[in-house]
Design goal:
The protein is mostly helical. It is built from 6 helices and no strands.
Length: 107
């Protein structure tokens, strides 16, 4: 069950984050797991903390955009983050696909 797997991953990443503190990649993974597990508040907070540690990192910009898009929150910011990620890595089809979704959702 995907929801159960997401919950297990979320628990693991929360424990690791509590143990290790400010690690951008770990916070990115926590954000994505929280988003998958239906916890948008935790997802947004974790993505934003990760991005604050490395604001130009395309993976972190992507995560910040995706968690907003999935939650249906702050779609303008979602689009900006996904645009920045796609601009930094134009050869990444996943970034382009999520950007297209954000553009469609934002209207």
């Amino acid at each position: 069950d995907a929801r159960g797997d997401s919950a297990k991953a979320l628990q693991l990443y929360q424990q690791l984050a509590a143990d290790s503190g400010a690690d951008a990649e770990l916070l990115r993974r926590l954000a994505m797991a929280a988003s998958q597990a239906g916890q948008p508040t935790l997802a947004l907070a974790s993505a934003d903390k990760a991005l604050a540690l490395d604001p130009q990192n395309p993976e972190l910009r992507y995560a910040a955009g995706v968690v907003r898009l999935r939650a249906g929150l702050d779609l303008a910011a979602a689009r900006q983050h996904l645009q920045a990620a796609a601009d930094a890595r134009p050869d990444n089809p996943q970034y382009r696909a999520q950007l297209a979704k954000a553009k469609a959702a934002a209207g």
